[in-house]
Predict the structure of Tumor necrosis factor alpha-induced protein 8-like protein isoform X2.
Amino acid sequence: MSVHRNTVNKELDLCKDPNPLTPAPVTSTSANTIILRAQKKLLSRLSTTTNSSVPLFTDHCRKAEQHQQTLKDVEVQFRSLSMTIISFQTIAYSYEYSFLAASLQRLESSLHSIVGELLSEKSVERLEFVFKRLTDKEFLDNVFSAKDTSSLSDFASTLESLLLFAEV
Protein backbone atom coordinates (compact mmCIF):
# COMPACT_ATOMS: atom_id res chain seq x y z
CA MET A 1 0.00 0.00 0.00
CA SER A 2 2.84 2.38 0.82
CA VAL A 3 4.49 1.56 -2.50
CA HIS A 4 1.36 2.66 -4.30
CA ARG A 5 1.24 5.95 -2.36
CA ASN A 6 4.85 6.66 -3.18
CA THR A 7 4.22 6.11 -6.86
CA VAL A 8 1.21 8.43 -6.83
CA ASN A 9 3.15 11.08 -4.89
CA LYS A 10 6.02 10.91 -7.40
CA GLU A 11 3.56 11.39 -10.28
CA LEU A 12 2.00 14.37 -8.53
CA ASP A 13 5.43 15.88 -7.94
CA LEU A 14 6.16 15.64 -11.65
CA CYS A 15 2.97 17.54 -12.45
CA LYS A 16 3.78 20.41 -10.09
CA ASP A 17 5.23 23.62 -11.40
CA PRO A 18 8.95 23.65 -10.61
CA ASN A 19 8.86 27.34 -9.74
CA PRO A 20 5.37 28.25 -8.44
CA LEU A 21 6.25 31.88 -7.75
CA THR A 22 6.94 32.78 -11.37
CA PRO A 23 3.92 34.26 -13.11
CA ALA A 24 2.40 32.50 -16.07
CA PRO A 25 3.54 33.83 -19.41
CA VAL A 26 1.31 36.62 -20.67
CA THR A 27 -0.54 35.70 -23.83
CA SER A 28 -2.62 37.84 -26.13
CA THR A 29 -5.86 36.48 -24.68
CA SER A 30 -6.73 37.69 -21.25
CA ALA A 31 -9.87 36.93 -19.27
CA ASN A 32 -11.66 39.98 -20.68
CA THR A 33 -11.05 39.03 -24.29
CA ILE A 34 -12.12 35.43 -23.66
CA ILE A 35 -15.38 36.63 -22.10
CA LEU A 36 -15.92 39.10 -24.94
CA ARG A 37 -15.36 36.43 -27.58
CA ALA A 38 -17.75 34.06 -25.80
CA GLN A 39 -20.42 36.76 -25.68
CA LYS A 40 -19.99 37.51 -29.39
CA LYS A 41 -20.21 33.83 -30.27
CA LEU A 42 -23.33 33.37 -28.16
CA LEU A 43 -25.00 36.44 -29.67
CA SER A 44 -24.20 35.35 -33.21
CA ARG A 45 -25.70 31.92 -32.56
CA LEU A 46 -28.82 33.43 -31.02
CA SER A 47 -29.30 35.85 -33.89
CA THR A 48 -28.83 33.08 -36.44
CA THR A 49 -31.32 30.86 -34.63
CA THR A 50 -33.84 33.68 -34.31
CA ASN A 51 -33.50 34.71 -37.94
CA SER A 52 -33.97 31.16 -39.18
CA SER A 53 -36.90 30.44 -36.86
CA VAL A 54 -39.01 33.47 -37.85
CA PRO A 55 -39.87 32.14 -41.34
CA LEU A 56 -40.57 28.72 -39.84
CA PHE A 57 -42.94 30.27 -37.33
CA THR A 58 -44.82 32.23 -40.00
CA ASP A 59 -45.05 29.11 -42.19
CA HIS A 60 -46.40 27.20 -39.20
CA CYS A 61 -49.02 29.91 -38.55
CA ARG A 62 -50.08 29.91 -42.19
CA LYS A 63 -50.40 26.10 -42.19
CA ALA A 64 -52.38 26.21 -38.94
CA GLU A 65 -54.80 28.73 -40.45
CA GLN A 66 -55.22 26.52 -43.53
CA HIS A 67 -55.89 23.49 -41.33
CA GLN A 68 -58.38 25.45 -39.28
CA GLN A 69 -60.25 26.51 -42.43
CA THR A 70 -60.23 22.93 -43.72
CA LEU A 71 -61.62 21.72 -40.39
CA LYS A 72 -64.41 24.30 -40.63
CA ASP A 73 -65.19 22.96 -44.11
CA VAL A 74 -65.22 19.42 -42.70
CA GLU A 75 -67.64 20.55 -40.01
CA VAL A 76 -69.98 22.05 -42.62
CA GLN A 77 -69.72 18.94 -44.80
CA PHE A 78 -70.37 16.64 -41.85
CA ARG A 79 -73.39 18.69 -40.81
CA SER A 80 -74.74 18.53 -44.36
CA LEU A 81 -74.12 14.78 -44.54
CA SER A 82 -75.85 14.27 -41.19
CA MET A 83 -78.88 16.25 -42.29
CA THR A 84 -78.99 14.25 -45.53
CA ILE A 85 -78.99 10.97 -43.60
CA ILE A 86 -81.72 12.26 -41.30
CA SER A 87 -83.85 13.33 -44.26
CA PHE A 88 -83.33 9.97 -45.99
CA GLN A 89 -84.58 8.25 -42.84
CA THR A 90 -87.47 10.66 -42.27
CA ILE A 91 -88.83 10.75 -45.82
CA ALA A 92 -89.56 7.27 -47.10
CA TYR A 93 -87.94 6.21 -50.39
CA SER A 94 -85.82 9.36 -50.67
CA TYR A 95 -82.47 7.57 -50.41
CA GLU A 96 -80.19 8.33 -53.35
CA TYR A 97 -76.87 6.50 -53.43
CA SER A 98 -75.04 8.83 -55.84
CA PHE A 99 -75.78 11.94 -53.76
CA LEU A 100 -74.74 10.28 -50.49
CA ALA A 101 -71.58 8.78 -52.02
CA ALA A 102 -70.56 12.16 -53.47
CA SER A 103 -71.02 13.79 -50.05
CA LEU A 104 -68.93 11.09 -48.41
CA GLN A 105 -66.18 11.46 -51.03
CA ARG A 106 -66.02 15.25 -50.52
CA LEU A 107 -65.75 14.68 -46.77
CA GLU A 108 -63.02 12.09 -47.29
CA SER A 109 -60.95 14.37 -49.52
CA SER A 110 -61.17 17.19 -46.97
CA LEU A 111 -60.12 14.90 -44.14
CA HIS A 112 -57.43 13.32 -46.30
CA SER A 113 -55.72 16.68 -46.83
CA ILE A 114 -55.33 17.17 -43.07
CA VAL A 115 -54.61 13.57 -42.09
CA GLY A 116 -52.06 13.22 -44.89
CA GLU A 117 -50.04 16.18 -43.62
CA LEU A 118 -50.30 15.67 -39.88
CA LEU A 119 -50.56 11.94 -39.25
CA SER A 120 -48.83 8.77 -40.37
CA GLU A 121 -49.41 6.77 -43.52
CA LYS A 122 -51.18 4.15 -41.42
CA SER A 123 -53.76 6.76 -40.37
CA VAL A 124 -54.31 7.67 -44.01
CA GLU A 125 -54.86 4.00 -44.83
CA ARG A 126 -57.39 3.70 -41.99
CA LEU A 127 -59.26 6.74 -43.26
CA GLU A 128 -59.36 5.31 -46.77
CA PHE A 129 -60.57 1.96 -45.42
CA VAL A 130 -63.43 3.56 -43.45
CA PHE A 131 -64.62 5.68 -46.35
CA LYS A 132 -64.28 2.80 -48.81
CA ARG A 133 -66.64 0.82 -46.60
CA LEU A 134 -69.01 3.76 -46.10
CA THR A 135 -69.30 4.44 -49.83
CA ASP A 136 -69.92 0.79 -50.69
CA LYS A 137 -73.23 0.67 -52.59
CA GLU A 138 -74.31 -2.67 -51.15
CA PHE A 139 -73.61 -1.46 -47.60
CA LEU A 140 -75.58 1.78 -48.04
CA ASP A 141 -78.44 -0.03 -49.78
CA ASN A 142 -78.70 -2.37 -46.79
CA VAL A 143 -78.57 0.51 -44.30
CA PHE A 144 -81.34 2.45 -46.02
CA SER A 145 -83.47 -0.56 -46.98
CA ALA A 146 -87.04 -0.76 -45.75
CA LYS A 147 -86.38 -4.13 -44.05
CA ASP A 148 -85.11 -2.91 -40.68
CA THR A 149 -85.62 0.76 -39.98
CA SER A 150 -85.16 0.65 -36.21
CA SER A 151 -81.35 0.88 -36.24
CA LEU A 152 -81.44 3.62 -38.88
CA SER A 153 -84.00 5.61 -36.90
CA ASP A 154 -81.85 5.24 -33.76
CA PHE A 155 -78.83 6.43 -35.71
CA ALA A 156 -80.77 9.37 -37.17
CA SER A 157 -82.07 10.43 -33.75
CA THR A 158 -78.51 10.28 -32.38
CA LEU A 159 -77.33 12.47 -35.26
CA GLU A 160 -80.15 14.94 -34.55
CA SER A 161 -79.19 15.18 -30.89
CA LEU A 162 -75.53 15.68 -31.85
CA LEU A 163 -76.48 18.46 -34.25
CA LEU A 164 -78.58 20.16 -31.57
CA PHE A 165 -75.76 19.78 -29.06
CA ALA A 166 -73.27 21.30 -31.52
CA GLU A 167 -75.46 24.39 -31.97
CA VAL A 168 -75.38 25.18 -28.25
About this structure: Residues 161 and 167 are 10 Å apart (CA to CA). The mean pLDDT is 77. The radius of gyration is 36 Å.
